[in-house]
Structures are given as C-alpha cells and as structure tokens.
Amino acid sequence: MHQLTSLKWILGFYTALFIVFLYGPFLVMGIISFQQGPEGGPQFPIIEWSTFWYKHVMGFAPPSRVAPLPVGEALFRSLTLAFATMIVSTVLGTMTAQAFRTQFKGSGFVFYLVVLGMMVPGILLGLGMALVSDQLGIARTWWGTTFVLHVVYTFPFAFLVMLAIFNRFDSSVEEASWTLGVSPARTFRKVTFPMIFPGVLSAMLFAFTLSYDEFPRTLFTAAGDVTMPIAIYGTFSVEIHPNLFAFGVLTTLFSLALLTVYAILMAMSVRRSQARSSGIQEEIA
Amino acid sequence: MSNTAITEQAPINSATRGNQHGLLRGKRHYLLLAPGVFWMLVFLVLPLLMMVYVSFWTQSTFAVSPDLTIKSWVAFFSSDTYFGALIRTLRIWLTVLALTLVIGYPTALFIGQFVRNKNTQTVLLVTCVVPFWTSFLIRVLAWRPMLGKEGAINILLQKFGITSQPIEVLLFTELSVVIGMVQIYVVFMVGPIAFMLARIDESLIEAARDLGASAWTIFRKIILPLSMPGVVVGAIFVSVMVLGEFATASALSGRKVNLLGNIILTQVGSLKWAFAAVIGVVLTVVMAIVITGLLRVVNLRREL
C-alpha cells in the first residue's frame, strides 16, 4: 500500500509536468502577444509591455509595415462554414447511428466507409477533391468543395459519438412508446431525442471545433477565398509578427466562452432529465 | 396493420422487435443510411479513386493529360529526394508515435487509475483538451519563441547555469519538428488510454491485490492488457495525423525538413498534378498498412 501511495505522488507530479508541457507554448503566446509594436518581433525579451498587437488585430492600430490579418471576412467564412458543417454532420451522424441500432447486412462496410472519413489525411482528400473539380470543371469554393470535405471529416466523429450514446441507451422506453401507439416520428421527437440530447450536443461541439480549425482540406479546395486557418498559414511564408499571438489569445478566449455555453447546456440537460426521472418515480410511488 | 402487429407481439420481449414490421423496418433502414453513404461515396471515395487514376496520367510542364503512363511512378522511386522524403516521413512518424506513447501513458495511468473522483478526472481531461481551442497553426508557431536561439528554453537554461551557450539545434531542425508534433498530438494518446483505464473494474484489481500480486504484476497482467484498445485507438489517431502532416514541418524546420505532405504541396503549387497524385497514393498505401496492422490488435467496433 505504501508503495502505491508513493507511486501515486510520482505520477501526480509527472502529470503536473505534462500539463506544463502542454501549456508552455500557450503561455509564451500569451506573453509575447503583449510585445511592443510595431517594431517588436515574436521573440524574447519583451522590449516594453503594450497592447499594440491587440489593437492591430482589431484594426485600431495606425497603419504600419505589418499587414493586418483579414479578420473580418476570414472569420465570417470560418464561422459560417463551421456552423453549416456542424448541422449537416450531426444530422447525418445521428441518422446513421440510428440505423446501426439494429443488425443489418453490410453494416461492416458502412461502418468502415464512414470511419474512413476521419482516417484519410486532409492533404490526400484535399488533393483528390482538387483533382475531381479540376477535371469536371467545377469551381472550387469554400461553401462548396470545402464544405463537403469538412462534412466528410466531421461526420464520422458525430457518428461515433452517437453510436456510443445509442449503445448505452435503454430502448425499452421507446418500445413502451410504440406499444402505446405513438408514431415512430413522434416517439423520436418526444422520447428518443431528449434522451440522446447530451450526445447530440457533444457531436455538435466536435464538428464545430474540427471544422473551425480545419486546414489541409481547405487549403486545396477553397481557391482564393481564405478562411481563418488559411490566412494564418499565409503568414508562414512571410515573417511572423506578434499579432498572430494576440489573435490566438482572443480566439482562445472566444472558444472558452463557447465551451462554457456547452457546459451550461449540458448541465441543464442532465439536471432536467434527473428532475424528470425523479418526478416519474414519485408518481409511481 | 401495425396496431394488430403490436398488440400481438407486445407481451413478447424485445428480442422479437427486429421483426415487428419487417418490411417497413428494412426500408426505413436504407432511408436512414442513404444520405450518409451517398455523401461518403461521392465526396470521399470518388476523390481518392480520382487520385489513383490521375497518378497514371501523363504530366507535361503545366498540365496533365489522360494518357496512361507509369512515368510519374518511376520518377518517384528513382529520385533520392522523393524516396528520401518517404523514409524521413516514416522515421518521424515512428519517433513521434513512440514518444507520444511513452510520454502520454503515465499521465493516462494517473488520470484513469489513481484519480478515483469522476469530477477530478473530467477536470484533468478537459485541462488537457483546452489548448485545442487555440488554432493548431498558432500553437505550432508558438514553439518558435520557445525553441529559438534566444528563446524561452535557452534563456531559462542559461539563467540556471545549466548551459553556458545557447543550444542551437533546438529550432529549425528535425528535433524541433518532433517536439512540436509530440506536444500537439500527445493528447490524442492520453484521451483514449485514460478512457479505457477508467473503465477497468476496480474489484478486479482488489482481487489481484488480495491474492498477493505486486503492483508491477497487476500492471503487467491486468492494467496493460485492458488498456490496449485505448493504445491502439490513440496510435491510429496519432499515425493518421503525423503521416499527413506538413504544416508543423514547414513552420518549425524552416522548410528544411520535407515530409511527403510538403512535397505534395509544392507539386500542386507547380501544377504537377500527376506527380502529386503518385505521392498521395504512396501515402495512402502506407496509411492503409499502418491502420490495418493496428486494427489486427483490437476490434474497434466491439470496444465502443
């Protein structure tokens, strides 16, 4: 027993180090985003603390040799794309997982076909799609060719999440509803959906995050219209400036806000279902 | 019709449910499956087949024509640059895979086995995932001020007198690419392993301990085998992402380390479609071998 407690402390300490390793660059990013501008570069030491690069990202800074990030348009495209991808992937994922609740012929094929979507590296899919549209003469657009690839990428995640949810799902409730003569569509709306809602929320979160940050698939298929990751990638070839890090800090805060909304929705959904089930139990008693 | 069917079968348990309204149920199935399958066939399988097809086309300076040839294939395997990139990709992939496993496993072990409180477990896992809400590319770029000659690590090392000279191999080398990739992908290893470890029935371990098994034996005979599905899933995630990488390599190596992905990118940039397709097919084959190999170890569908 004594041996195990010391092991626990060692592993705990190791985990702390591990988290420092994960957050290290993050911390550096935060510090350097306050570098003096516009002369200060993305390195140590900090010449003078300033919020110049934040103003630069927001477009308030006086014009300088550092080109502003195309925040407005690119961010709009990224968010629209992520939103559309989220809706389509979650619907497809839920439908397919629903079909998987009963045995059917060819389920293995469908399973691997769907999972293939997350297995194939983005660069290959992007290349393939670029070739197809090139040969068929289809214009490459962020809302067309890019969008369908984003769904190919995120739909498997939604599918797997929903599959895991349905596996732990007590179907006797649904059966009771059918036995009472409620139509399948209504049963899904009134019984199944509220029960799987936490899963749907996770699937949506997955799809949105993955699409929002997606990059290799977009690179090959969006032609001239940049999304946010492409805009950032564009700065690779030129010099990088601390405005990227300021932007990183801002988007992280935005994402954390989104995550908080998700957590609140999740907690509410859990509480509601608990309240409901305890209410039912009281009625029975 | 459905009413009579239900009243007849209602007392019988759910085992017969599958046959309840046989025909209708079967059709509903296909309706549910059709959109997803269609989407994947058209937007996933078709592009991949196209890539294989184009790899046999004839490449002229700025265009491809559909006259079948194996010229591009011969060019790939006879060129030291391209074959070298394949070897380099495989080497970096294996290094990153091994490192993510070695670095990630103890953390997963701590979260999955030693933290018994479900809430603390969730908090720790979420802490690991939070950096993912920062753009992947910005996280990669943040390594530059860390590793550079006047970067954070060199400053710290010199301040504490561990080194007297700045270490220069830290940035713009293969090492920096490996460091960057390990940090970005290690969480994909930690997550699945911790998930599997947390599912282990505690009474199993207690029983083993009561029977006098040492901590090491318990680890080797119970914990390790039961965590294998997690290791495999993590390894698949990491492999898929590292093999298709190019951004980390170009950001942290100053374009000195060229992976297969980087070469695809430059080939497409100079409109060498056929050649890019060849490299794409090579990458696909490597990936297929790796994934089927890993899936041999564990049945993914059963473990979900």
Q: What is the CA-CA span between the terminal residues of chain B?
A: 37 Å
Highest CATH level, the class of the largest domain in chain A: Mainly Alpha
The assigned structural class of chain A equals mainly alpha
Order of helices and strands of chain B: HHEEHHHHHHHHHHHHH
Give the termini separation of chain A: 45 Å
How many structural units, i.e. domains of chain A? 2
Low-confidence stretches of chain A: none
CATH superfamily of the largest domain in chain B: MetI-like
CATH architecture of the largest domain in chain B: Orthogonal Bundle
CATH topology-level name of the largest domain in chain B = MetI-like fold
Identify the CATH homologous superfamily of the largest domain in chain A: MetI-like
The third-level CATH topology of the largest domain in chain A is MetI-like fold
Q: On the 0-100 scale, what is the average pLDDT of chain B?
A: 84
Percent of residues in beta strands of chain B: under 5%
- Approximate helicity band of chain B: over 70%
Query: Which class best fits the helix and strand makeup of chain B?
Result: mainly alpha
Q: Find the biggest chain interface.
A: A-B, 95 and 86 residues
Instruction: Give the CATH class of the largest domain in chain B.
Output: Mainly Alpha
Which blocks of ≥5 consecutive residues of chain B have pLDDT under 50? 1-24
Number of DSSP E strands of chain A: 0
How many domains comprise the coordinates of chain B? 2
